[in-house]
């Protein structure tokens, strides 16, 4: 219960955060202009907190909410192609209750997994600045402390990988990003995977089978 309340309190802090003026302004602009397909929807338009099982042993770390995905729906990796790809894989691996991720009240639940991001606001061109990464990093640090059963961390993409290392004070040279890379990082097993962006999934750089293999390895780690 204390852990759940801790994560819920952190989520409220994240949602209220206004520390990065550029991201606040960008968020407001996206909510005004919207994408034509979502013109009738009310955008979440705030920083997006982490999502998942407070008893999770697996943490997935992405880069940031997509402007018309999580920034619109209010839940990480929800409402866009990246989320469709990721949650379908999590469902196949037994970490998600359904393979479909449409909006934050669609009933999808994570089992033994928690999803978060290095930056909680949608950044222009999907590129947070170094200062924005630094402003958001304490949220990730606190999440790590609020998930005491954590045994494995899966970083989705090189930028998320670098920020996870920064959050725990690890040297990037000792934990280089590569798809399928695996390391022992403090008390956790660190796994790395290409980000499930359309740029990667549409070109075949990341296939369903590749992501399935990484999640299968995560299962092995959790099984000891």
Q: What is the global morphology?
A: globular
Q: Please state the CA-atom Rg, rounded to the nearest Å.
A: 16 Å
Determine and state the CATH class. Answer: Alpha Beta
Q: If classified by CATH, what would the architecture be?
A: 3-Layer(aba) Sandwich
Count, helices: 8
Helix content: 40-55%
pLDDT below 50 for ≥5 consecutive residues: which ranges?
none
CATH topology: Uracil-DNA Glycosylase, subunit E
- Rounded mean pLDDT score: 95
Main β-sheet: number of strands, strand sense, barrel status?
A: 6 strands, mixed
Beta content:
5-15%
Total domain units:
1
How many DSSP-defined strands? 6
Query: CATH H-level name... which superfamily?
Result: Uracil-DNA glycosylase-like domain
* C-alpha termini separation: 26 Å
Query: What is the SS-derived class?
Result: alpha/beta
List the secondary-structure elements in sequence, H or E. Answer: HHEEHHEHEHEEHH
Strand order, sheet with most strands: 1-3-2-4-6-5
Description:
- This protein is 41% helix and 12% strand.
- With 224 residues, it is of the alpha/beta class.
- It has one domain (2-223): Uracil-DNA Glycosylase, subunit E (3-Layer(aba) Sandwich), CATH 3.40.470.10.
- A hairpin with a 2-residue loop joins strand 5 (182-185) and strand 6.
- The longest helix has 17 residues, at 130-146.
Task: Name a few traits of the molecule.
224 residues; globular; alpha/beta; Uracil-DNA Glycosylase, subunit E; six-stranded mixed sheet
Task: Please sum up the structure shown.
By secondary structure, this protein is α/β, with parallel strands linked by helices. It is built from 8 helices and 6 strands.
């Amino acid at each position: 219960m204390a852990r759940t309340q801790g994560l819920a309190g952190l989520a409220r802090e994240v949602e209220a955060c206004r520390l990065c003026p550029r991201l606040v302004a960008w968020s407001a602009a996206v909510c005004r202009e919207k994408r034509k397909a979502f013109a009738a929807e009310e955008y979440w338009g705030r920083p997006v907190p982490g999502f998942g099982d407070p008893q999770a042993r697996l943490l997935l770390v992405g880069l940031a909410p997509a402007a018309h995905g999580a920034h619109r729906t209010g839940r990480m990796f929800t409402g866009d192609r990246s989320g469709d790809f990721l949650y379908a894989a999590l469902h196949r691996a037994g970490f998600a209750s359904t393979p479909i991720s449409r909006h934050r009240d669609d009933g999808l639940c994570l089992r033994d997994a928690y999803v978060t991001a290095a930056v909680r606001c949608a950044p222009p061109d999907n590129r947070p600045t170094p200062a924005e990464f630094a402003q958001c990093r304490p949220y990730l640090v606190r999440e790590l402390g609020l998930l005491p059963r954590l045994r494995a961390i899966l970083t989705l993409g090189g930028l998320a990988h670098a920020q996870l290392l920064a959050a725990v004070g690890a040297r990037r040279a000792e934990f280089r990003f590569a798809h399928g890379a695996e390391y022992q990082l403090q008390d956790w097993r660190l796994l790395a995977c290409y980000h499930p962006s359309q740029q990667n999934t549409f070109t075949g750089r990341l296939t369903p089978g590749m992501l399935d293999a990484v999640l299968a390895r995560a299962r092995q780690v959790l099984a000891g």
